[in-house]
Design goal:
Helix content: 40-55%
Distance between the termini: 18 Å
Order of helices and strands: HH
Number of helices: 2
Oligomer: single chain
Largest sheet: none
Radius of gyration: 15 Å
């Protein structure tokens, strides 16, 4: 095996794939604000009352937040 870190979709910081760190942090911040949902459900990209697909927007927001946290803790120098 190589000494390099293995590349996994959910386990590799986006900066290792060439995405700028500032863009990852901006997307994570947008995901965090969307999860907080200061409008108390008034602002929804996909309304939650649609079966199955209603929660996809929250899933994407959590994924953006996950990548931001991964970048913060694991990103560092390549």
């Amino acid at each position: 095996m190589d000494d390099e870190k293995s590349v996994g979709f959910f386990t590799t910081p986006p900066s290792f794939r060439g995405i700028p760190r500032w863009l990852t942090y901006l997307a994570a911040l947008m995901g965090f604000v969307y999860i907080l949902n200061p409008g108390a459900g008034v602002f929804e990209i996909i309304p939650d009352n649609f079966p199955i697909v209603g929660n996809l927007d929250e899933g994407v927001a959590f994924l953006l937040l996950w990548y931001g946290l991964m970048e913060f803790f694991e990103g560092g120098e390549q």
